[in-house]
Each structure stands twice: as C-alpha cells, then as structure tokens.
Amino acid sequence: MNHRFSQHDSRSEELAGNVLFAYNEYGQPTDNWQSHVGAVDVNTTAESEDTYADGLAGTSRPAGLIYSEERAFTFGLRPGDGMEDALGRVAAIRDDDGGSPGDTLAEYAYLGLGRIVQEGYPEPEVRLDYDSGTPGDYAGFDRFDRVIDHLWYAYGASADRDRYTYGYDRASNRLYRENTITSARDELYGYDGVNRLTAFQRGELNATKDGITGTAAREEDWSLDMTGNWPGYVQKTSG
Question: Domain count of the chain?
Fold first, then answer.
C-alpha cells in the first residue's frame, strides 16, 4: 500500500514537491521517499526506511531507522526492564554496527507510561534532567506536571550547561522564563482577561519575577480585538 502527497507551484501549477510512503501489511510505514523538485523516483530519490520487530515475541514495535542506505540506527530497550519491554518504550538510540547495536547516541529514562525525565547524549556528554534534586522528587515539574526547571548539564561537570526555570498562573499561562546562565536574557509575559498574550519583555527579572530590572532589552506589546485581530502592535529594542 502506497500513499503519495504532492505540492504544486501556485503560479505554474507544476509539481514542486512530492512525498511517497509505503506500508507493510500491518499498516506501518516502512519506506519514505521525499523529492523537493518534481516527482519521486523510487530508484533515485533519497529514501528512509523504518524497521520493526518481526512479531515472533508478540510485538511489531519500531526497531530501527535507515537513511538512504548510508546510516542506520537501532532502537533499544533497557536490558532486564520488564516495564519498558511491556510498554515498548525506547530506552536508547544506537548506531547500527553490522546488524548489532553500536555506539549509544541517545538514552532516555521515564516517569510513568511515557514522560521523559532524563535524556542523555553520550557523544557530546550532555544530559537533560528533570530529576535533578532529591532522586524521585522530579524537581523539573510542578504538581500539575508543568515544566518548571529545564536543566542541561555536562557529564562529570558541576556547572550547568544550560538552564531555564518557569513560572505559571492558575490558568497555566507562562508568566516568565528565567535564564539562570545568562540573566540578561530572562523573559516576562503578560496576558489579558481571556488569557491572550499581550506583552513580552526580555531583560533581567527582578527578585519577585514579576518585572524586568531597569530597561528591557526588547519589548513587544499587542492590542487585540474581540476576535484576536491586532489593531495595534509595538516593538521596542534597547529601551
């Protein structure tokens, strides 16, 4: 079974782009050809291939990805983890080494069914960590599962590589984004009574995180009508 999607130039009506998908007997996509100029030719157009478990163990979950027959990846489970096996969660993405798992490119840890709480990249040696405080407390989330501490750190280093903290109102509108590495690039947001963004400022947050210290390095303000159109818009840079 194949599906084809096409895009035509609005002026000449000539074929501008073409994507072709092929599927297996379970309806899973197995091949994907993308042509940015003209129609797909399955013999010459760049292709990616999705591979799946053979089903003998009762599952046909994704097993790997091949790019144009030049580079292949495998999706791995954590050995001995019965929950990940039952849920089919990807614990790692690895280079394919002649049909066997090679170097690990990315690795994941989860909370519950599918929320990623750690995401590591061994080659550049950096990790995203939402479980950075007391183990099991998940300092990266609040009680409503909103991200409040987005931390990237380098393996073996005490200093953060990149880190943002966030605050929200009762409607889950994001009120601020604090850049703990470069404080001059903090952001503050404002909303109207129906939770539409009306103000944005960049600069250094004050201690209570409800204003920018001094003059904002950048500011944008929107005036909105009842249907969300912009009757007015103001952009300020460097005050």
Answer: 1
Tally the C-alpha atoms within 13 A of residue 88's C-alpha that lie toward its C-beta: 10
Backbone angles phi, psi at 130, to 5 degrees: -95, 0
129-186 pLDDT, tens digit per residue, is 998 767 778 999 999 999 999 999 998 877 899 999 999 999 999 999 999 999 999 9
In which residue are the tokens 């089919």 written?
A: 88
The whole model's pTM is what? Answer: 0.77
| Contacts (Cβ under 8 Å, ≥6 apart) of 97 | 103
Domain assignment present for residue 54? The answer is no
Burial classification of residue 29, based on how many CB atoms lie within 10 Å of its CB (0-12 exposed, 13-18 middle, 19 or more buried): middle
Q: What is the pLDDT of residues 97-140, one digit of tens each?
A: 777 778 899 999 998 888 999 999 999 999 999 987 677 789 99
- CA 8 – CA 28 distance, rounded (Å): 27
CA distance 130 to 93: 20
The domain of 211 spans 169-239
Q: Is residue 211 part of a domain?
A: yes
Question: Does residue 202 fall inside a structural domain?
Answer: yes
3-state secondary structure of 50: strand
Question: What number of other Cβ atoms are within 10 A of residue 101's Cβ?
Answer: 16
| Type of residue found at 198 | T
Q: Is 71 helix (H, G, I), strand (E, B) or coil?
A: strand
3-state SS, 127-186, equals EEECCCCCCCCCCCECCCCCECEEEEEECCCCCEEEEEEEEECCCCCEEEEEECCCHHHE
